[in-house]
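Moderator note: this is an archived Q&A kept for reference. The question asked for a predicted structure of one protein chain; the sequence and the answer are reproduced below.
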Amino acid sequence: MQPRSTRGRTFLALLLCFAGLGLLLFFAGREDSHPALPTAERDGRSITQILIDIKPQDFPNGVNPRSPGVLPVAILTNADFHAQTVDPQTVRFGQTGTEASVVQSTLVDVDGDGDLDLLLHFRIPDTGIHCRDTSASLTGHTFHGQALTGSDSLVPVGCR
């Protein structure tokens, strides 16, 4: 699959690790662009890589693993993927992407591009995120059964 972007060119590499299998993917596009994301296969089933944003509008994404609160995570809509196709009941988020289930979901434009994104909230204690973690992952399915995965960086705070 040939990635494409309509907003400029910068080289970006993404390393995906799935059960010890490393897959290096390269995209073209600026940091603020949303390039097409490839579909990988695992055990004969395709898994679509999606764009997520932990704590939309914040960077770096500071997360206090000891907080009893909730953490917002957005699944972003782009030219190749529509977040409203995601079944929130299938979504899990956390250290490996299998931990916390959704406690609240809503469709809203979180990145200001005019498209509806899926904003999800997860209980922080359920995510399994620890003070040593630097990223978290999300897994789920669309209403049609397509498997999805995505990850984003985080910065642990309140860990002294």
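Archived answer notes: DSSP finds no helices and 14 strands in the chain.
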